Predict the 3D structure of the following.
Amino acid sequence: MFQLDIDRSARGAPVETLHKIVGGWGLVITVQSSGDLEAIIGAIVGAAPRLSEDHEVRADGLIVSRVGYYRIFWGAVRYPAGSLAILAPLPLHENQDPRDWIRHFRIEVLDPIQALSHQGYAVGGGGDGMVTEREFCQAFKTAYV
């Protein structure tokens, strides 16, 4: 596991919010691509179409998707060699038992996103401030909006 860091210039940008997500949640999915921002977002929504059914695009460009019994907080950013995305599952309600929704999350989001690795995307995970992929960690340090 690798500690996820950001450049000082990313403070106040969506990159910092994504960084806080990785630091504050126990589970995240990471996706890295050499393609542009629109391509990675399209691939993610194509793999897990429920993310687009009931969603809100926040002022900072990050997205909250409500999917059945849970939510996904996610976003994508550019870096010099492509684009990066982070997705974090959240319960729909505070104090909700994860057993109520974790199986649905795995079937509807996690497994389909992991399948993007067969299409040239680097898919990993992480949480609690760490990510599994060294390359993602290095790319994230150079990310911008």
